[in-house]
Design goal:
Distance between the termini: 27 Å
Shape: globular
Helix content: 25-40%
Number of domains: 1
Strand order of the largest sheet: 3-2-1-4-5-7-6
CATH class: Alpha Beta
Radius of gyration: 16 Å
Structural class: alpha/beta
Order of helices and strands: HHEHEHEEHEHEE
CATH topology: Rossmann fold
Amino acid sequence: MELSFAGFARLHDFLKKLENDTYPELPTQLHTEITNQQLNNLLAKYPLQQGAAILDVGCGQGPALDIFREKGFAPLGITLNDEDIEACRKKGHQVTKMEQSFLDYLPETFDLIWARHVIEHSIFPHFTLAEFARVLKAGGLLYLEVPAPETACHHENNQNHYSVLNRGMWVSLLGRNGLQPLEQVNFNFTTGLGPDEYWGFICKKQA
C-alpha cells in the first residue's frame, strides 16, 4: 500500500482539522484517583529503575507527571492542547506538542509509556499502537486505559473520540503490535448519566 504525496497532504490536512476538536483536560477527582491507583499498582508490581525513561501520552495538565516526579522520575509528556502544555510547563514539566501517532522519538527510547484515555482520540489506533511499540524498549511497559463503548455515557459520541472499541478488539490490536497484556482491570462507577466503565491494560513489549 502506497500513499501518493497528495494522499499524505490530505491526511495532514485532515489531522490539522482534528486539532480543533481538542479541549483542555482539567483534572477531575475520578481521573486523579484512578491515575494514583493504577500508577502505584504498576510501579509496585513492575518497578522501574531510577532514571527510567517515561513518556506520558496525552498528559493533560499533568496529574500523572506530578506523581512520577514525586516518585523521583523525570517523565516527558506530549499533548496537542496548548492550554495543557502551558499548565504543565508552569509546574516545571517537560511537555511537547506532538501527535500520538507520529512520535518524534528514536526506536526503543522508553521504559514505560503511560497512555490513559488518549488512544480513543486516534483515527487509526492500530498505527498508534505500532508507534508506541516502536519507541518502547524490548521488555518495556505500556499502560493503556480506554473507555468502554455504549455505556450510559456513550463515549463513542464524544466530539473527539474516534476509536471507542470493544475489549476484544483492543486485546487483538495490542497483540498484533507485540504488546502482551500482563493484567487487565475494569473500573465500574456511576456518573450523572448512569453506569460507566473503563478498561485498563498493563502490557509488556515482547523481545
